What does this fold into?
Amino acid sequence: MKYKIILLTFFIPFLGICQSKPYYKQTITAYEIKKKDTISKKVMVTHLDSIRKIITTENNILNAISASVYKRDKTHSIIEVNTDRLYISTDINSKGDTIGKVIYVYDEKKNRTENYQILNGDTLNGQKRSYNKSGKYTKLYNKYEDSHKYYLSNKWKYDSNGNTLKSQTYDQNGKLVGIEKFKNIYKKDEFISTRSESLNGKEFIIKSKEIKKGNVRTIYFYYNSFGFNYGIKINHVSGGYSIEEDDSEGNMKELRIYDNQNNMTVFVKNVEVKI
It folds into this structure.
């Protein structure tokens, strides 16, 4: 797994505040664990209305960027716009200052075709996507730094079941720098996908194996990597694995990550309650 982590005027914040009262509360709690001790904990809260549209969130955007200098400052996200074609969320710190924005643009089929992320006035990234008839994204374009132009950074190919067969990565000069291949096996009640990767023309090396049965997905890692998600540092260790359980809607309920000694290093839990 890889981790990759337009400035609009702060307008009409009351769109988020004046919506109907919350009916549901979603709480994601993430723990980073070392030697059975919790060394980091982050909590992300989202309130939804009666038709499950987001009203407000707390700490969701900035927690995804753990290196941010604002990570110790409690933030509150106001949903300024939330329609089928546009989503704008603004992060506000405890002093009431606007820290950052996330902007999503959707097409008529509700595919997210553009997204922009800004922090403290600086654009962290800008991306555009294209999709096939099945709603799977086929190409990803990244914005050049300090430019309004975009370059092709990734493209994908899928099998007849909609699972990835191949993905290719390009640098800003258009050079092919990475290829991922997926060997997919379908059984009666189980899906197995083995991912291999080649970087800069080198031989393919197996990186991970995913086994999905029902609403539980287990991924075995054959490489070392780290990144940030849910506001905590996440390590993938060769010989380690992760277990993720989803609900009936396909949303994550629990995520557990283990090292090669079966020690749990990450635990993430998503709980929803009706208020």
Observations:
- Confidence is low (pLDDT under 50) at residues 1-19, 65-71.
- The helical segments are 14-17, 60-63.
